Every structure is written in C-alpha cells, then in structure tokens.
Amino acid sequence: MPDPAPHFDASQPLPDPEWLIAPGLTPYAEAVAAMEAHVAEMHAGCAGERIWLVEHPPLYTAGTSARPADLLDARFEVHETGRGGQYTYHGPGQRIVYVMLDLNRRGRDVRRFVKSLENWVIDTLNEFGIRGEIREGRVGVWVPRPEKPPLADGSVREDKIAAIGIKLRRWISFHGISINVEPDLSHYSGIVPCGITGHGVTSLVDMGLPVTMEDLDTALHRSFPRHFAAR
C-alpha cells in the first residue's frame, strides 16, 4: 500500500520556509538524522518547510552514482548518502544549504526544481560580482578562469564553486547545495569531485572576494523568493 500523500489546504498561501543557521560544525550523520526527522514531520502535516544552513567537519560523501575509483585518498570520514551525484567534499568554510521544500505545493517537476536551485546559486553569486554558469553534463555551478592556464585541448579552465545533490521523498526534498566560501581547497585532492577531471574547484575567497558566511547567508535569503514560488 503506497504512503498517503501529505495533507494540506491548497486554498491557503504557502508560508515562507523557516530559516535556521546551525552554530559551529554539525556532524554529518546528525544532520542527516535531523533532516529525515523533519521530512517525516512534514509528511505527517506536523511541520512546515525549512532551509537549514550548516557547516560540517571535513568529510567526503558518496552519492548514488559514486564510483569507487574516484575516492583517491580517504583521509577523512566517507559517508554514503542517498542524494544524487558522486563524491564531494564538505568542510569548514563551506556553506551547506539543506533544502526541505514541498514540491506538492511548488510543482512536481524534478528538472525544474534542480534548475531553480542552480539559478538560485547563480543569482546569489551575482550579488558578489561572480558570473556562475551551468555546463551540460557537469552538475553544479561553474566559473570561467581565463587567468589560469588553459586545458590541454586549449579550452578555458573552469572551476566549480557550488555543488548540488538532492533527494526526494514523496515530493518533499532534502539534502541540497553547497557553496564554497573559504574551505581548504586542498582537501578536494582526496577525491575526483563529482567524477569530473581536468577542471578544478574554487571559492569566493579564492577568487579574491572577502565574503563572509554571514554575507552569503544574507544573499541566499534575499534571492530565494525570486526562484521558488508556490503553485
């Protein structure tokens, strides 16, 4: 017997999501358990949508498409997770945005939802003068780096500044996005990030922008309504 759909009154406007900022570094397993519990409460009609902003201690996560060969050096804990994607790194100086939204109210369209996440990140980065871009076949948000040596084929080097990996359960999302503010970029050398070789990773501070976590959080909150609307 399939799980019943969550109950809601479609005639009522959808309230703004609750925004929470976790202090310090949140252990990954603790974060996943908290998301699971909140999504269960949303399904039961006991909780509303939530945007949860956290930082993690250094660790690697393996998405549902992760290839064992892409784990080059397990110098940090490796967590298997149900989100989409491959290997990625999380650590201090990286803003993790866990997005618990009800797509029953916002449109049951996975592609449109992922596009909205991408455009949200791009819009947020634009507030700091960074032109984030999407590349076919490469998940996440990228920035061209013409000042760096080109790739072997002569094409412009591009660095990843944000990653996206979501999971849906009965059309409620969890997991989400990560944006590099000032993480230790050398920690990415233990994996092939998102299974992509040739290009690199960067951060706001690596690009010469003295952006704080608080600055990014403010920009994320300000740009959110432009990309997520109830239906």
Description:
- With 231 residues, the chain is of the alpha/beta class.
- It is 21% helix and 26% strand.
- It starts with 17 loop residues before the first strand and ends in an 8-residue tail after the last helix.
- It has four helices and eleven strands, in the order E-H-E-E-E-E-E-H-H-E-E-E-E-E-H.
- The radius of gyration is 18 Å and the shape is globular.
Layout of SSEs?
Elements: E1 18-21, H1 28-43, E2 50-54, E3 59-62, E4 77-80, E5 87-90, E6 94-100, H2 103-106, H3 110-126, E7 133-135, E8 138-144, E9 158-169, E10 172-180, E11 200-201, H4 213-223
Parallel strand pairs: 1-2, 3-4, 9-11
Antiparallel strand pairs: 2-6, 3-5, 6-10, 7-8, 8-9, 9-10
Helix pairs in contact: 3-4
Radius of gyration: 18 Å
Given helix and strand content, the structural type is alpha/beta
| Count of DSSP strands | 11
Question: What's the N-to-C terminus distance?
Answer: 28 Å
Choose one word for the global shape: globular
Question: What is the tally of helical segments?
Answer: 4
Q: Major sheet, described briefly? A: 8 strands, mixed
**Helical content, roughly?**
10-25%
**SSE string:** EHEEEEEHHEEEEEH
State which percent range the strand residues make up.
25-35%
- Mean pLDDT comes to 90
Unreliable spans are 1-7
Describe this protein with a few key phrases.
single chain, 231 residues, alpha/beta, eight-stranded mixed sheet, three-stranded mixed sheet, 26% strand, globular, disordered N terminus
